[in-house]
Amino acid sequence: MTFHSMWAELLPVGRSSASGGYRRFAWTGADADCRDWFRAQAEARGLTYEVDRNGNQWAWLGDPAEGDAVVTGSHLDSVPDGGAFDGPLGVVSSFAALDELRARHVKFTRPVAIVNFGDEEGARFGLACVGSRLAAGQLTVEQAHRLTDADGITLPQAMERAGYDPDTIGPDPERLSRIGAFVELHVEQGRALDLSGDRVGIASAIWPHGRWRFDFRGEANHAGTTRLVDRRDPMLSYAETVLAARREAQLAGAVATFGKISVEPNGVNAIPSLVRGWLDSRAADQATLDTVVTGVEKAAREYAEAHGVELDVVRESFTPVVEFEHALRDELARILGRDKHAGLTVPVLGTGAGHDAGILSGTVPTAMLFVRNPTGVSHSPAEYAAEDDCVAGVTALADVLEGLACR
Ligand code: GLV
Ligand code: MN
Ligand code: MN
Predict the structure, then answer these.
(1) Is 121 in the pocket of ligand 1 (CB under 6 A)?
(2) Residue 231 annotated in ligand binding
(3) For residue 364, what is the DSSP state?
(4) How many CB atoms lie within 10 A of CB 95?
């Protein structure tokens, strides 16, 4: 199968006809369809297919037990109304790169695997990179058991309903010890490559980032009969906090976003009793991120007090800065800088987006390739990469895999 035909096959899966965006949430029907697709691709190529104890899918060429494997891949799930590329581009490109290597008749000297990590976006249970975090021991079994979706379904229940055994979840050091290098190809989520005029780049670092839940509790009351002075309206302190987040981020040269909110009782004619908002904040370094989040929380407390509202702030997840391993990064630059790319230096860029590669980087040598995104838009149906650039990404990934696994 060509890149084009694989892409076309996956394109309708989990796509909302209303928004044109993807709703491929962990352990749902759309996720199952993506997983079936992955399995079919593995089997069509005669690769050894396996699902690990955390529900991540693997397709092996060569003997996994040999160790020092070169692994590539990404994820197939999406954010709510996400784009087609974030995740799937890496998985589809991995199969296409393997096909290209076979067409080149290379001789593999190391095992190679393609992986689809489960629940990278955290759209359903609120925590990103659940599959890789569990495997790397960065999420405990107890914490995973407490993850609950908007309908009150826990992660183990969701896994079970999808036909997976939740009793096996947990750290998987044996499996990760098979990996000598992990390379994740991903659509760029910014415009650095567009501005530099390059199709493909190499990742340097991932900004530290986290998610904080702000619960503003006030008093439900009648929207028509309650005098303004008598209200304890949590929506007001929430709204002011959104503006504070923007201000703090701007001052610090960071980013801060309230992109998800839940309101109780959520009635047009009722003052809310609870406004729960999730802050996502990221910065180039830890100190800056701390300054932003501390500033937002301080402002939120002042606003809450002014409105007679109670506030709880809980950090739901945090990923420290990731500096990708220099030796592997330099190896990628060397591989991509020769032959067809002769004379060209491959741009090396940082990103504010989180990735499974970032989670694994604490355990195995890890690197990332980015493919140009002309508008930089991501986590939206407008996310895009031109087919020529995707094909250049496949060639770059094939070159990298050949350089690493066929020495
Ligand atoms: C995942 O894409 C994230 O950066 O939140
Ligand atoms: Mn994403
Ligand atoms: Mn992604």
Answers:
(1) yes
(2) no
(3) S
(4) 23
